[in-house]
Amino acid sequence: MASWWCGRFELPHHLEYPSTHIDPTIEKLPKPTLRQHPDLRAYLDRIEVPALYVLGYQAIAEGPYGIVRLAALFPADPFRGGRPEVFALDGDRRSLHRNPPWDDDVDGVSAHLCLYFPEDPDERRWTVEYGLVGLFDLARRHLACEHVWRETDEWPTEDAPHGSAARPVAPRPELRVPSLHAEPKAVRR
Fold this sequence. Notes:
Layout lengths: L9 H7 L2 H4 L4 E2 L2 H6 L1 H10 L7 E9 L2 E9 L10 E4 L42 H22 L37
């Protein structure tokens, strides 16, 4: 087994640049954090992928909910349809929009954020053209919505159903955010 970026180091660079210059809190997720955080470890155990083969990043979110470390894991190639999984490593876990815990030993509430439905149109979900800064900003907005929900019992944005009731939403191209940068020619598909 090899990492999806092995021999293709332009791919992580494409994710990182210019995001790490725009948001200096974005950095590589330390392998000890990936191996030792109970939610991350449970996720890796569930998908049966060693930490060595998962590309991970972390960033800080700060708001009325406090300071929260965010982790984005890329177990599969996002340039070929693999989607990242995002976790809030700290803070209040109560939320309407979190994925179920990966491990029964974790307190029954998950750190794994449910940011969008994977089958939604491109303008409604994260794609590589938005870079890491776009992914972490999506997670920050999610944490702000969780905070509002905890304070008011109302989810402040569109509230999509989960589980078997989840369905893709209709396309709304006007919501498309401009790409962070043009796709480099060196990225192989």
